[in-house]
Design a protein that fits this description.
nine-stranded antiparallel beta sheet; eight-stranded antiparallel beta sheet; 502 residues; 29% helix; alpha+beta; globular
Length: 502
Amino acid sequence: MADGTPINRVLVKADVFALTPLAVRTGAQEAAETPNDDAGSGKPLAIDLDILGRPMIPASSFRGVFRAFLGTSGGPVADMLFGHGPRAAEKETNGQTRQVQVARGGKLEFVNLMSSDKDPRFETFCQTAIDNATRTAGDAMLRASRLAAAGTRFSLEITADSLTGAEIEFLAAALLAFAAEPRQVGASASTGAGLIELQDLQLFAMDETAIAAWLSEPDIPSWRDYIRKYPVDMAALAGAIPGLIAPTDEDDIRIDLVLDFDAPFLVATTDTAGQADLAPFEFSISHSDLRSVVRLPGSSMKGAWRAQASRILNTLGLGAEDAEAMFLAPLFGDVGQRGALEFHHFKVDDGAFEDRIQEFVAIDRITGGARSGAKFNVRRPDSLRLKGGMRLRRDRLVANFGDTENGRDHAQACIGLLALVARDFGEGDMPLGFGSRKGFGVPTVDLAASVMELGVAGSQSAWLPEQMQGPLASVLELAEVKAFLDGAVAELRRQLQRAAAE
């Protein structure tokens, strides 16, 4: 399969399944009002739709995610498939050689991923920024976003002409590696949105004989009638992936957390806008299985961690602008900059929970009694155990700071900051969701059930101790890990002292 004989046309087909709500923004706002508009949420941010009003994933968005996943894998073969931007090259004209910039288009052609659902579902997701001082919703900071609902299915097609066997082998291996686990595309990917899964991956091809047969027809039909499945030994190809593909997301830290809530936990859902029900339910997707479960959105966890990191930096004497530029934007992201830290949704593992009703009433500040018409209730799950994850991407830290000694020191300082935030989170200083001033939403981290993993490249790159993997309860007791985290916090303090001196 890896010889140099070209295959005249190749077609890749697959289903792309949205595991979580997905949005590829247009930069505009919807014309329709949202259910919460009277509460100040405004109009939701619009997403890409086809002419029939169904959600779609632009070809450029999927191609960009796929190409970024591959990193430097493939070398010249990847350049032939995907193309590359301007590069320095020598060009000879009239016997003279001069330096020019040469760009190249790739052989692969991606088309927009259209939804195959006849009756697509949409969600409106409301978010608010948290004021660092009050730890409550910031004034006029409520915003709404429209998303394609979890469970939406899209059709992926990639075509290419004149591929060699080596190029087909690399493309198939790249797609298998990409499909090995869920990936993220679109907006808010760092907070759990846009999680997709590739299913039913198929490869087709036309050789010269099939091309001749197609062109010999008097009324030339569609070439799709003559393309046939390409024989690929998937088992052998899967074994060859480590030698062909070195994904950029392997050099990272992944932490799977297990959170126990003894007190009530509430995060409002937009599905009950205008009602008193604040139950944190969503539709959880497992292929075709739709079921209602409790979740903690990744955006809620990210907001809590970012706010606590900001408070720590302010306490240590770093101004708001410097804190944003030096630590918060590189870690958590900002406009035009994707952060190195990602959070996934936290959900009840088996979907089971005890559903209870809790009554509330507002107190009149003058009379001290119940305010008229201010009684309400909420549905709340009791004794929750949520599972979710977070990931620190070293490749993004390197991109933000540079792979130099100063850049590596700055990356270590960022880990020191996250270690301090994690300490506060583990000690219960960071309640989550609604009613944090009432004792709600205080999680306990089950260190024995929570697990830390290092990417393959990360365990070999010496940027982290190899011992930093396994159950958190064991990892945090290791002397090497304690020394590393102490050094990271010390580097954070050095960075802050240097910034104060400047």
